[in-house]
Amino acid sequence: MIDDRLRDLIDNERYEEALMLLNSNNIEPTNPNYIYSYTIIYYRLKNFSKALTLIEWLIKDSKSPYYLVSKLLKGFIHKELHQWEEAHKSFLDFYLEFPQSVHRNEAGFLSCLCLEELKKFEEASFLYKKLYTDNPNSNIIDEVLFRWGYCLDRVEEWTLAREKYLEILTRFPESSKKREICFMVGMTYFRQNSFELAKKYFEEASQYDNETPSFLNEMASELLKISGERSVESKKVHSKYDPYS
């Protein structure tokens, strides 16, 4: 049967052959099974404009078995086309419409990343807050906290940003991002002129060194030196005006 052959070709990533099979048969133009197959094929072949046209047709019927997956795929197509505003809205719509979906957290997170692409960091931080509040123990909560902290960092909410970074260190002490997080915490203190505390976290960031020092290590080392110098200088200034020193 064509369905079995088609599924086998798609599963084995033989998309051109799957397309030829569809085109060589008298396919009912409104059959959702075949429309969805065409959509997947065009998406995999990176013909996103055709895939998007078909997706729009599929999501017209909310009772279709392909409705949910098509709504999510629409976001991915817009994302591939770098249509960030449309992608954000599609992922957010999915997040709000399907609270029980296993893909909900992913959709919400992708919606936030699209806002970051648009440089809408304040809006993204509000949405990251919602993701955190809705599911504080999701399987991607460490990534949510990190990106939330980053967005707060970008709008100069350094104390709040630091809270998110430090929560990751508390909840996920073995995080693969530990060096990066320590560096980011150090930067929040550095920007607030708390050089002694900045120095502490830059020192910690510098400890997580692989065989080849990374760019992040080099930055941490350089900022560690600057923080140390400024910390000494700030102590000198403080002692100069401190009547008890």
Radius of gyration over alpha carbons?
25 Å
- Average predicted local confidence, pLDDT: 86
Shape assignment: elongated
Number of helices: 13
Category from helices, strands and their pairing: mainly alpha
Total beta strands: 0
Helix/strand order, N-terminal first: HHHHHHHHHHHHH
Helix-residue proportion: over 70%
Low-confidence stretches: 234-245
**Proportion of residues in β-strands:** under 5%
First CA to last CA: what distance? 90 Å
Strand and helix layout:
Blueprint (H helix, E strand, L loop, with lengths): L1 H10 L3 H9 L8 H13 L3 H11 L8 H14 L3 H14 L6 H14 L3 H14 L6 H14 L3 H14 L6 H14 L3 H13 L7 H27 L4
Helix pairs in contact: 1-2, 2-3, 3-4, 4-5, 5-6, 6-7, 7-8, 8-9, 9-10, 10-11, 11-12, 11-13, 12-13
Provide an overview of this structure:
74% of the residues lie in helices and 0% in strands. It is mostly helical. α5 (67-80) runs antiparallel to α6 (84-97). It starts with a helix and ends with a helix.
Descriptive labels:
245 residues; 13 helices; elongated; mainly alpha
Summed up, what is this model?
The chain is mainly α.
